[in-house]
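Weekly structure sync, notes
Attendees: PL (lead), two postdocs, one rotation student
Agenda item 3: pending single-chain targets
PL asked that the sequence for the first pending target be pasted directly into the notes so everyone works from the same version. It is reproduced below exactly as submitted, 176 residues in total.
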Amino acid sequence: MSGGGQGLGKVEVRLKWDPSPYGEPPRHLDIIATTYPADAPYGRPAYVVHYDSRSPDGTINMSRHSQTGMGFGFVEVMVLELDRLSPSYGRVVVGVAIHQDGGPRTFGDISNAGVVVVEGYRQLIADDLARVADATAATVAEFARDSAGVWEMREMIRGFDSDPVVFTAEMGSPQH
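Predicted structure, written out during the meeting:
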């Protein structure tokens, strides 16, 4: 786990990928976050945040969304205000899923994919998702409160072979 002194406050997860080749259906990736109660950090998520939603209290939301990639750098951004998240939540897992409506696609099929996690100007994670090339979805990071209530982060690049809906139920499992 990392976090540095005061723990994490406001974190951004940024995602990039290139558009599909000419004549192919758009390639659509999404950042997804699942939030877990402090008393059941590996149970069912209390809520899920993705392109079409935000957390009930507004502490986790999408500030930028793309359905095609565009090829202009980080085109999708999720903001997590961990320092404002209710103490009733003890864990947040963030991942990326590929929509499968244009046929089966894995990260190996996606050109120039990349994800970064930053806090201010400090880069916490940078990954090109190549190590999960055969997966259709992947977790990226786990944020958890320590015993003092301070938010820390652990890199958690794990591949899954599931669609976005199933992925939201699986992504917070302790093992895959």
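Discussion points:
- The radius of gyration is 15 Å.
- Strands lie at 10-16, 29-37, 47-49, 60-64, 76-81, 89-98, 114-119, 122-127, 137-145, 151-160.
Action: rotation student to compare against the earlier draft before next sync.
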